[in-house]
Structure formats: structure tokens, C-alpha cells
Design goal:
Jelly Rolls; seven-stranded mixed beta sheet; five-stranded antiparallel beta sheet; 2 helices
Length: 171
Amino acid sequence: MISVYKESDEVLYPEEEIVSINKQDMQQLKDMAVLNPRQRIRLCTHKTPSDKLHEMFIIHTSECYVRPHKHVGKIESMSIMEGEVDVVLFNENGEINKVFNMGAPDTGKLFYYRLKGPIYHMLLIRSPFLVFHEITEGPFLRQQTIFPEWAPEEQCQDRDAFISRVESLIQ
């Protein structure tokens, strides 16, 4: 794998000018994701959080809770490389607007989407691993990611009930 430095156990940045990734690198990232308490990892291919363009290879296990959130003033695109996921889009009140049933290109499902505006979205991972390539605008500023009051935080006891309710509404 390319040489990286860790911002955290979940966020890696390249130390090299040219970033290239192969199947073995993805497996190493998957192995690392499983070891993280939140069961996820991202390899940023940009150099710093202040870069204007952010490209990331992100791996989540099926155990990940991706709390609904939106990004203010940013465009975001996502391409599925491995696995399957339901991307759930919500209105401001927490009502479901749309669901994208997505998978890697060989599944025949949608494998790409682009959100132009600030729309609440969450991921319901349907496979042991979800590997995706995400592109968004930088710089990364935490205050530009908004979490709604109607969606429980990761450590909240209501989290599983919330996920079950969303699941029941999209099936």
C-alpha cells in the first residue's frame, strides 16, 4: 500500500504525490476497518483537509450506522465499487423522499449518484462490506456537516429503533 499518515484510526492521508490502489490495498483497508470500533475507514487521496477537491475510498462494514446528515455548500458524489447499500434521502422533517438501491456495477443496480444540494441522507449497508469512492468539495469543515435532531447519535440507545423504523418504511 502507498505510504500514509493517520489523522486517526479511521482517516488516512497519502504521503506520496501519486496515489494508486490495487485489490490487495483494498483488502488491507477492509482488515483495518474491522479493527476500528466504528467499523469504518477512509483513505483520502487528497493531501490535507484544506484541499479544494476531496477524493476518498471509504470502507464500511455492515455494522456501521451512518447517521443521517447533510453537507452545507457542497456537492457530493458516490460510486460503489463493492457491496450493496440503500441510500435513503430525507426531507427536513425526517420523512423519506427517495431511496437509491445501489451496488457495484456487476450487480446491475445503480452504482453512482451525485447530490448537488444539502439533502439529509444515510446509508443502510446490505453486504458484509461497502467499498465506495466519494468525491466532494473541500475544505473539510466539521460545521458544514449537519445532523438532524430527529436522527439519534451513534451511541444513543434509540439508534437501533430508528434504523428499524427506517427499514420498515422502505420495504
